[in-house]
Batch of 4 targets.
Target 1
Amino acid sequence: MNNEEINVDEVVRQYNELLVTIDSKIRTFNLDEDIFDLTGASQYVNEIVVDYEKYRKIVKAITDNAEKFVLSNLDVKSLKNEVTFYGDKIVTIKKKILYTYNLSIRILNDRKQRIKDKFTTFPEDGAKLIEELEKENFPSRYQKGIDSFQDSLSGADFSKVRDFNKLLSLIEEKLGNRLVFIDEESYIMDERIKYVDELIKKYTESGRPLKKSIMMEIDIMRERLSLLRYQETGLQVKINELVVKLNNAVYGKKKTSSTEYTMLINSLGSFASELNGFNNLLLNTKSAFNKKVYDARMKSFMTRYDYFVNLINNGISTPIRENQEQMNAIKNMMDKVTDLIEKLKSHQKENTSQSENGNTDNKSKENEQGSHEENDDTFSNDVAEEANRLIADMEKFAIELDEFYENFNSGKSKLSNVDMTNKIKSFIMRLGAFNARVNDLPDAIKNTEEYKSVFLDKLELLRKKVEKNKFLLIQQNANDNTSSRENDSEPFEVKDVREPKKINKYYNKPVLIASALASLALLNTTIGTFLIPALIVGNIALIYKYPIMDKINDILGKSIGAKKDKKTGKWRNAAGIVIDKIKAIPGILKSIAVSGFGLPKITKKLVAKVKEIANMTPSDEYIQGMKERNQEVIRRETKKLCIRYIKSGLSFEEFCKKEMVPDSMVEKMAEYIQELSNDNVKGRSR
Amino acid sequence: MVDKIVKLGNNQEFLILDQTELDDNVYYLGIMVDKNEEPMNVHMFFKEQKKGNKTLLVPVMEEKERNLLLTSFTINYLDMTSIGEV
């Protein structure tokens, strides 16, 4: 771009436009989802690269002609950093795509071979599955291949299958092999991550800078690992479902009694736990009863229930019938299932009047939006199926999160820091996947009023549970820095008590206490929810006493291990995100103050205190307090003010007036400037 | 012990930030400091025990007790930061 030709306004417009485009495109690129559509993802990134190149050239023109852009509100100096920042992001995304691509090809080839090997007995089914996989061309889409195979099983003529167990074991082996394969992949990646972590540790200890490429690589591996673990869980669920379906498909066929018994008990058990989960959901979200979801799930439950009733009455083989113990166990389990079905039915009765009332509203709405009727038809079939599956998956995830939290919080289970970090990362990724699934629900569901009350609330609940688990990591880090868990409750003898030499000189005690309490409160989200506001109130109080609040959050952040990205100024880790949350709490407090109902007493007190403090104005009295308590801080602030005054080009009086410098501070500034000029005089005379 | 640095039997050093009494027991809030007396990212509640002439500090790990202490120390903190008292 020629200097003569530069039209500042036009360049700034182009710059802003491209910046917004690139930023939003990068942000909307979802690793979990987009990466599975390899071709789409590559095209998308190529588009970003084209925009990025244009943007880079514009930034170069701006930085080369910085003086022309003085009045354009652009921070010209930081533009180069901005370019690097987006460039790095694009490189990371590209690397992830390439890595996933290579891995997918490898997995695909391996799978194809294994499937060919395993399906020699049933070549048609095997061929069909391979065909599906060829079409999908991506590992995560194996799931679809398996689904398709599963569907073909339910419609297959099993009268020709002579050996049910052989078929079952083949399928289990096929799916099991996938699990083993994923497990192997996870293990290899785990090992690699451990190795790289060691490497990073050595680098850090030696003080040498880390290569960016290493960091990127390890991030990619961690994400890939989380994804594999996610697939692993999904597949285990699939295997269970498949076994039930297969059992269903070959109902009535001759089986050996022990396999038959185990399978039946397992199927009943998993059915009962599914029913129980749905029952709990309905109990917990009474106000958000969704008739459509309820009907769809009940339909599916009743089909399965009838199948079990039929199976127990007519399909159980003689060896089991003659085994009293086994028959009792089956009957007990079936009674439990029946009981749960009855409980579920009672929800319908309870909510009938509610849904009837709701129907009147719905009808009028449907009249307003004519296409809804059509959507509802679709909804009742495939969509309802997906919605049910999503709800069930979310419930399972919630249980898993609770169990994980309980096991680790109680100390029953232990993981290394690396494993724990990976586990939490996998939770975060799975939460992301749920988020995407909820977002991707068809309009038939999204247009219903229950969308928020069922799906979004459930998602929010999961998010809270993941957050809760994140704190375990912070807790573990803190504990690792002290002593082992076993030694924590052992008494320690106090060997020595002494005055600190420097602590009080450099740190404000209230800030230290706030940091300590915030850190400890964060370990318990329940209590943290209303104690952290307390700490914020304290910090607000400090703002009025010490004009150094900018530093307080940094100190608070540092004390709980938060790390900031120097380039972007954003927090880099979980502890940093927590600090952001703390910052957001005054806003939350405000909304609490507005709503003001059902709050713990302590929170009400806090709200009153916030109001009290917010009505106060900083005065000389506070400055006086500051002077007495922290001479160093005053000196630093004075120095800063003086530098600003010198740079401002204003007269001393004008500057003080403009900045509203308090009288006591004016004196300090005058003293400091006098000192500076004395030093200058001395310097010149030397 | 408040505002003092205590050295424990395991050679770790904690700056005691505050103390409170619950059910006739004395509890402390401490932050670990390094050899340069710089605060570290480790915070602890301790319960005081006397054994003869010796003073022992027991880290509080039980969740309910910790929650009580959080409340108690937070209220102390609020009093401390109340206008005119700091």
Target 2
Amino acid sequence: MTSLTEKRAARTQPETRTIRGKVHLREHLMGWLFVGPFGVVFLAFLIAPLAYALYLSLFQKKLIGGTSFVLFDNYVKAFTDPSFLSGAWFVIRFSLVSIPVQIIIALAMALILDSVTTLFARFSRLMIFLPYAIPTVIGAVMWGFLYSRGFGPLTDIFGLFGATAPDFLGSDLIFYGLLNVVTWQWAGYYMIILYAALQGVDPTLYEAARMDGAGRWQIATRIKIPLIAPALILILVFSLIGTLQFFNEPQILRYLAAGTIGSDFTPNMYAYQQAFSLANFNYGSAISFALGGIVFICVYAFLFFTRKRRSFL
Amino acid sequence: MTDHSSLRAGARRPQRYLPMQILLGFLVIYFLVPFWWVIVNSSKDAPGLFGGGNTLWFTDQIDYLGNLRQLFTYDGGIYLRWILNSTLYAIAGGVGATVLAVMAGYGFAKYRFAARRFSFAVVLGALMVPATALVIPTFIMFSRLGLTNTVWAVILPSLLNPFGVYLMHVYARDAVPDELLDAARVDGAGELRTFFQIALPLMRPAVVTVLLLSAVASWNNYFLPLAMLSDNRLFPVTVGLGLWQGIASANNAGTTSLWSLIILGSLVSVIPLIIAFFSLQRHWRGGLSVGGLR
């Protein structure tokens, strides 16, 4: 069989085109053989549902007259629906606060763990990462207990100082209550990714910088952080996608925070309620699709503004 | 990598980092507090839980065994079923997604086939599709096919892992030299044999990473099974505990014992994952750096 190296050589020599053609056919087949099974799943569970959701979102079901084609009426309805708009505004606001908080904490932890090599540092690394192994639902259940007035420790702790405990499940502080749950859950995971990237940096760079008189702070900000910028962009994009789809934590905490978290607290919760509680699949699909549009716009805007850096795409 | 670490260690004076170690200590406490609360409070019975007292310390009555027996016998042992369901979904979804991702990543990295660039760009674009946006249309498609409220409704959509394909692509591109594959081909190995005997062993760290990430994603999944399943005997443990949480909150007075079941249930449900992570950490750490680095 003709080898791939020959094929590559053939690319620069047009006179051996016949060999190249034969190899190509075989390569096409093998390539599609390897990619094909994933391709089938991709078409069945991503492309088809997306197309179907788009289709569904263009119809409306009425009590009288049945289902009718309404084009973008559902989207017009969504973008004038206070429930959807307040949910969307909440997740955007929450992203703007929670993502920087998580990334800064994760970056600080990764930089510390990259420069401290004691046994305790290694132990801390594992413990900080531990929440990633916990399902977000269980994380929310656990923090819900810690927040609760009945059996959480906050009442005792604040009681020691004669103060009333803050109610993280009340409407004033729920933002911070959720911020804490999310940070606890994800900061360790981001830390591990950044830490792995830092470990891949060639330490002779630090030596050279030290010779030139750079301090530890300068090494961190001028060498380490720029070199792991691709990893930072990667986790920023993933946390943005995840946060805009916020569902699990508020859905679980709403049992404990009755009255604070409504069924339209985030767009995803609202879509779930429309589709599965009210059987309004057309409007639910439209909300999901509108949310997907918001995610796309936010991610592309973000990638556009950071494209001068080497992006992971 | 070994050169790096010895170089690092040599250039280091650990005592200067004491403030940072103290800071790490506080961070560790923060990250462990919820675990500690759950460990302490799953030892208590209902009066111990609600009787006031220190919520961060044990009462005189430490009754793990009694609580465990209650947990595993409540409602005909439904909790054990949930754990087994979660295990099934995590293994089937994780293994399936990994096999597909490894093959596709290798295919994208090592074969120049028609429409390769376009297809790969589509897969990367799919990273940005909110997974939950797919749940509603998938639910309707499955309900037409009579697949809702079956294990397939949870397993089949979990097979999709575009990020796994991306990770495997990057790793295969860098860790599997073309020359080695060509040498195997010259020696007469077929494409499949080359893949299994040459490429796969070289990709192992990334394979373990993708396996772990997809298994965890399936184990943690909540939205998909919540939407797809109505029979609580098919629930994974996340949806099951969510159900209990809802019941317990709805009639707080009547079902106080359910709270201690939820607390112990959350503790028991995280133990398998913690063990998996710690025992496999040497294998997956190498693969995780890939996604961030390049």
Target 3
Amino acid sequence: MSEEHFVVIGNGPAGNQAAQTLKEKAPEARVTLISKEREGYYKPCLLPEYMAGKISEDQIYLSTVDAYKEKGIKLRSGQEVVDVKPRRREIVLDHKEVLRFDGLILAVGGRPRIPEPLLVFRDLMMTLKTLEDAKTWIEKISRVDRVLIIGGDLTSLAVTKALIALGKEVYFMLDENAFWPLRCNDDMFQDVSDRLSKRGVKTFYNCKLNSMAQRSEHAVEVRVGDDIFEAGLIGAFFGLVPNVGFLARSGLPLDRGLLVNETLNTGFEGIYATGDCAQVFHPEIRDYWVSIGHDNAKALGRTAALNLLGERRPVDVATESLFDVQGIKVNTSWWMEF
Amino acid sequence: MPKVDITIEVCGMSGDGTIAAGGLLNAAMSEAGFSVLAFDSYPAEIRGFGRCVTRSRIGNEEMLALAEKTHVLISLDDEQSRSRIPFLEKGAAVIFDNKPPSYVGEGHAIPAHVEPDINLFGIPFSDLAAEASGSTRGRNLTALGGFAVIFGLPPEIFRHVIQKKFAPKGEKVLQANLMSFDAGYNFAMTAFEDRLLKILTPPETEEKTEKLLLSGNVAIAQGALDANLKLYFGYPITPATPILEYLAKALPEKGGKVLQMEDEISSIGAVLGCYYAGQRAMTATSGPGFALMTELITHGIMAEIPAVIIDAQRGGPATGLPTKTEQSDLHAAVFGGPGDSPRIVIAPTNVTECYEYTVKSFQLAEKYQTPVIVLTDFFLDNRVENVPMPQASKEALKDGNIYPDPSAKGPYNRFELTESGISPRAVPGMEDFMFTTTGLEHSESGGPNYTPENHMQFSEKRHRKIQGALEDLSIPKEFSKGGSLDVGVISWGSTFGSALEAVQKEQEKGLKVGALKITSLFPFHDEIIRGFMERCGEVLIPELNFQGQLANLIGHLHRKDVVRINQATGKPIPASIILEKIEEVLKA
């Protein structure tokens, strides 16, 4: 009989933890971890500090690519899954290689969210989700003096801090869509605005972004309300959306993310979703919730792996730690880590 | 410009255009001003199956040998390329076709096998080529287009070399190839915008010496042409066939003739016949063909007739490994054949020397009236280097014949016993210089003579003559700071580049290590070799053969056993193996 083959898609905290747990608990099984990113496992929340030059690239890694081999996990980095066929128990990679699996854990995380009204300016805006993104920021940042940050999620604040440390002039436009998944009230916005101003950041609050236009290689003309100014770089920070577009034709249950029951199962035997990409059903509230943050993701990754191996462990989330944000229940216990 | 030293491989199935892609890549790199040392390996079968690999070491300093590790792998066939994965350097780039014609199962695509640190660049070679040119045949060019972008090479350089290669095949073929290249280039420009490595961008300001991209075989053929070769006789055999092919086109243009003979025996017979008649003639073969020639080679030795024979060694014995390299004909070249039959054996170590030694071989053959064997090997014959245009000096091109004095009185003794052993040689048609020639032992006049005294005298004459050739043969060249050495590495033929590279690495560390290059294998400069050995604590002799044939030949000159590094894998010996052995010996 051939060995069992477990596939984990995504090398973030959830995917990494899932793969490690699978290998620990089922050492005879073959575990393949597929990641679109080429790097090893790192902590994305450290990217702003890396950008600021406060820490080296080595310091952001939690696990190098070599470590997977030592643990017996086959890491396929820089490889993209383009389709999942749950009934045939197959996944298809971008280069047309088809992998069969006995168990699958989808931990594909999220991608930067750009609100619909701003999509027209997408090409003029940078985000910070991956190490590649951070390197692009580092490459470009030295050539500009002023940066405009639009949005206002936690990454945007960390990036602002990094930019100030680098001696850059920072303009900050607090957007009404900011702080997703948390909806800020006026008091919160005012508080953030005051804090930013104290650090020398020019803030725009309750203003409309009228236009953006590239004027030269390192200058974009921006119109915000009545103000017109130039910025060398523009960063957009509106949280993340689950990266599940490639599953549209798979037949897996999708809403905002992948819908799973309290044991993280997708409804297909042996197929689980975990981490930022999962919307988890909560039997008490009869609704789905999502979770963001490194520690939560790790815990979810472990749960998904254990359940794939035969346990039926529900994700234990107290109802009081779930916040309703724009109609979505969010587990915010991750807040503490910031 | 930062130091560049990278190895690029193109790997595919026979018929994928692997060798063509490698050739274009080498030409482009040379045109860009880099040093190139490249070697192709391909199956013995003509077409349809089997792995083809081109390895090109590219740098901005002289390349002495192939490197063991590969920095870029261009995979035209993932199944075939899997075997190359163990040779990938950490962080290497793999350029592959990410849209094969059909879906493949797990493990049938190269991404399934690479380590996670490998940079994968997926380019839909076939789709792009078909879209651009209407055929997937140009997919190797599409791959090169991607390569050019990723590594920062100007597309004009590639377009120029594509033009040179395909223009003779007509506008349609040329345009199809150019379009395939451009399709790969444009795709990669967009797809890998954020990942471009750009480590091969040629410097714009540096002056470039005009260099020629030559294989060892072409250098040999060109050397023969420049040496005013009149007649070439040969029978096809890998890896010597390219010499026949090159000369078949080029020699008639210079008024010479090329004849494909029925076998190697008739080839050497015809060479001896021509040279007997006073015309420069040459043949080239490989081990099995050389074995057939040995009886007639000794006829040339006995009858004192010049001949130039290129023995392009390959893996043996017998048919052996037709497309693999080996240095295992040394014993056969030096000793092969009946009787005491001294001959001259020389062995170039690089492409430039292939040219120079071929030119020189004619003069040596003529002056010493003996077959001269130029020993090369598959790796040297097929490897490509970009070298300054080789040119033979007037001195090297001079006629080497020593003719009898027309004013001399008395009967002409063709095999006159002289102090040097060289007897002035008349050729048929020279008035008053008629003589008998035979493969039998003979007297000075040429008539058969089997007396003990005569045979002793003439055996001695033949050996004296060949030993005298040492004054015209290249002396061993030492690469050290002199003085006593902890380790000395003695090497010959294509292996020398690896030996020197290993030695240089140790010298950079300040270690007392030296190299000695021997190109004259018979006769050899024993006093110089012994002198070098005496200054060495240990002597290492790396060779591409199982027995250690050079070590057998010269090992006795050392006061203790030499350390043999014998590799019979069919592959060139990497510098790292020699380096490891040096370190091991130093530690001991």
Target 4
Amino acid sequence: MALPDIPPVAGISLKPEHFRSALEARADGLWFEIHPENYMLDGGPRLRWLDAIREVHPLSLHGVAMSLGGPDRPDPQHLANWARLIERYEPVLISEHLAWSALDDVWFPDLLPVPMTRSALDRFCRNVDIMQTALGRQVLIENPARYVRFEGDGDEADFLAETVRRTGCGLLLDVNNLYVGSRNIDLNVQDWLRRIPADAIGEIHLAGHEVDTGLGEPLLIDTHGGPVAQPVWRLFETVIALIGPRPTLIERDTDLPAFGELIAERDRAARRLIPARKSAVAHV
Amino acid sequence: MSRQFYDAFADLVSGVASEPVARRLERPGQADRLAVYRNNVASSAIEALRAAYPVVNALTGPRFFSPMAKAFWRGCPPRTRGLSGYGDGFADHVAGYQPARMLPYLADIARLDRAWLEAHHAVDGPVCRPAQVAMLAPAILADLTPGLHPSARLLDLSWPVHEIWQRHRSGRSIGRDPGLAAQAQSVLVWRPYDEVRSVVLDPGSACFLARLNDGKALASASEHTLARYPDFDPAAAFGAALSAGYLSGAIVS
């Protein structure tokens, strides 16, 4: 599947608290990303707000609950709910995670780590394939925020690259997750970026993290609860210098600031994309 | 590997046991880090409940609410994907939660919070407008079965908490100990369009609406109610329902 042809502009994650501001915002190229699970509702104003915003701005659906990295196949009901939202909102991008969150009939509201093993890779590729086939769309897969390594874990970049090769999925490069992994488990960023097929990267995420110093060694926790950190901005610049500009999202899930604060961060990302966009054009 | 890893992890994030996952770490000294996952799962569930039960949270305070919510999550973890509808049954949990026994009306507050959430996200449907029925002949009107609007939730509460709840909902707190006496109260919560509304019903109207909600015709619901509440005024109750907009417009073409 080919990557969708989306201009490499910057957007922000959208929460109900910001519906009115989002509807009224007119920044050049602004787009919004939502968690589809929050819109799997029977009816009501939340869905209508999104209808209205969708009329003005492109939309991306970023799932957190498909549990593609789990032992089970994707839940048919959840796939049907996704399909309904895709039909209604016609998102320009759809994405999910290299993570799991469901076991039997219990859902754990978090992105849990997938063992980087051969058998986990087989199951993950099977599930990505099921999701893409059911939705008739390419899915971008996001790299995880990692805190520990498990015995037998293979290389994360190889795992993702192999998933791209087998399923034709794209990738969502979360720069904060990559940075968090480099600090927490010594993920080698340069090596990671070399091994990842750059052409498959269809979207970039930028988010804030917190540093927990209560455990001796500092642990970076991917909280999405604050501004993007300086080293993450620098890594973002490295990434776009290397792979070219991509649609880039400022992600904030907790401690939601005023809409204008997110727009200011988004503008900062947008400014960094412009020289890269120009040089990408010149390169062609 | 495969299944065992996930089972062990489910035990970890459910707070059952962390050793089986810790044993699989490349660096066993980092077992403390696994708390990130355990905390994320629990706090996501707790924060979803806090958002779904804002008046319960306001009346108890967040430090009381969190362990109460955590205890609920342990017994009733989410069984569907996403947290928008999570928390069904929380009111019963509150009713049986020993530390909350000093606030015996708290479970009814939770029922109102839940009804608000369900009405807010309920399927949209047309509201029965007075003009739709104004021209109907009395015989046809008598046989009409105007069920309640699909968003409507009829509550039979044991405590008269509607006013306290509504004041909190509209940001007008009245303190933590309203000093209520137990007394039955019927409340209807519904969303005619975008805004969730609520109203206290007299016992006759509550009985009448419950019959309509069961699909009974206007005449039958009126007779049933009058047999129990001789002072009940069906025309007034029907008129109030029409003007407030909590009858479904789906059956009237």
